[in-house]
């Protein structure tokens, strides 16, 4: 798997309007910075997009709730990657309701004939 891009909205320390991370702009990266500036949140976002879980506190029922940016009620992570000469996109979102929340997952593959993504997920 070769990462292509990562987009976050209201995920941990990343709020609205955060520019996507374009992995095609570098070959090797070093994440550095002060504590609490979002370095590990990028790794958590990749894990959450692919497997639906990242860091989780012992008292949390659902892992999504702890990843939601404080003061917001919904978040989304979009991760694009290449695999076997195909381009895939995973979009995982979470919306918190009064006492529960709903998670949605969409897996897509890029169709070069139509120049757009096609869903591989079942409803």
The percentage of residues in β strands lies in: 35-45%
Number of strands: 6
- Shape category: globular
Cα-atom Rg, whole angstroms? 15 Å
What number is the mean pLDDT?
Answer: 90
Number of helices in the DSSP assignment: 1
Question: Which stretches of 5+ consecutive residues score pLDDT under 50?
Answer: none
List the helices and strands in order: EEHEEEE
Span of the ends, CA to CA: 25 Å
Secondary-structure blueprint of this entry?
Blueprint: E1 2-9, E2 21-22, H1 39-51, E3 74-83, E4 86-96, E5 101-111, E6 116-119
Antiparallel strand pairs: 1-2, 1-3, 3-4, 4-5, 5-6
Q: How would you describe the overall organization of this protein?
A:
The chain is mostly beta strands. It has one helix at residues 39-51, and strands at 2-9, 21-22, 74-83, 86-96, 101-111, 116-119. A 6-stranded antiparallel beta sheet has the order 2-1-3-4-5-6, with helices on one face. A hairpin with a 2-residue loop joins strand 3 (74-83) and strand 4 (86-96). It is globular and about 45 Å long. The mean pLDDT is 90.
Summarize the structure.
By secondary structure, the chain is mostly beta strands.
What labels describe this entry?
mainly beta; six-stranded antiparallel sheet; single chain; 123 residues; 1 helix
